[in-house]
Amino acid sequence: MLEPRDGIPPVITDEDSLAEVVAAFAAGSGPVAVDAERASGYRYGQRAYLVQLRREGAGSALIDPIACPGLAGLGQELSGVEWVLHAATQDLPCLREIGMVPTRLFDTELAGRLAGFPRVGLGAMVENVLGFVLEKGHSAVDWSTRPLPEPWLRYAALDVELLVDLRDALEKELDRQGKLEWALQEFDAIASAPPAEPRKDPWRRTSGMHKVRRRRQMAVVRELWQTRDRIAQRRDVSPGKVLGDAAIIEAALAIPPNVHALASLNGFGSRTGRRQLEQWQAAIDRARALSESALPQPGQPVTGPPPPRAWADKDPSAAARLSAARAAVSELAEELNMPQENLISPDTVRRVCWEPPQPIDPESVAAALAGYGARPWQIEQVTPVLTLALTTKA
């Protein structure tokens, strides 16, 4: 499929046109296909730069959320309508920012996983399920570009063109496999989940952090990361375009005493101006001047069980339980033809194996799984095999 059936719709960039779209989609029927395009790797944050919609009776719409930043009215008109998204958890945060929050949804990627499809990207799913090949050449472009080129708009419109058709076909397949109720529980869990909490100490996720051993070096990573983040936010560019993770790690390991030494490190070479070098060196100097008590601790506070590789030494019985539980979950997932992580969260399995409920019986295991957020269908499927695994001895 190279062209949308009704052609490429005009991009909505003013309030009058937006009001017409809102009215049309409110009057439409059936589910609404929704997608959003971000500028990951180009701009700071994960805001939406294009929103695509399609609904029976309304056709397709392309909305510029930069020119029309308040889409809460559209979201309200579609409240109660089922939204069809592909990989919903990727788009929901940026849609929430502009006032679009579904109360019901159908995730075609997750549906594909539960139905046992080996490839669940949108292009692969449309091809395997509906027999159409979509042009997918513009997924990683800079969607903050204005005006958006016509080939990009064609790609964006095609992303929602067949989404409801795909949803309908997957619903039938899930029903045939006896998994439709499972999928509906998963979709409800996504729609009702609260916004994710900001990550604590995000600088600790700097690529290459495993090389950094000393607390003073960690302080350098923190200072450089925070300085980079402020600059990236002010300039509205991806942090990686300001300074690469590899350069941050290089500077942390070397802790250069001055600008001259800093300039000799990879990532701080001839292209880096004197003023930029001085701001990076100032961040390093702040880390060097910190007292011992102000240095970051080597690792975040651990919640839950320790890493599984340490279980054999810390608690051999727990290690035996985990080994048995993993094997049982793997076998069951294979029988049900779905990925293990969709059958039950690996973290939930670890927690239950580290501190088994007492007594170890189906009722207690089911209660423990529910306490960790497992859905009823997961509890029903997994409780018998986990109960057996938890009785395994070292």
Automatic annotation (TrEMBL):
Record flagged with keyword Transmembrane: no
SMART domains from the UniProt entry: 35EXOc (SM00474), HRDC (SM00341)
Phylogenetic lineage: Bacteria, Bacillati, Actinomycetota, Actinomycetes, Kitasatosporales
GO biological process: nucleobase-containing compound metabolic process
Domain of life: Bacteria
Transport recorded as keyword: no
InterPro entries, sorted: 3'-5'_exonuclease_dom (IPR002562), Exo_C (IPR041605), HRDC-like_sf (IPR010997), HRDC_dom (IPR002121), HRDC_dom_sf (IPR044876), RNase_D-like (IPR051086), RNaseH-like_sf (IPR012337), RNaseH_sf (IPR036397)
Keywords: Exonuclease, Hydrolase, Nuclease
Ranges for region Disordered: 292-315
Protein's recorded name: 3'-5' exonuclease
Coiled coil spans: none
GO molecular function: 3'-5' exonuclease activity; nucleic acid binding; nucleotide binding
Residue intervals of the HRDC domain: 214-294
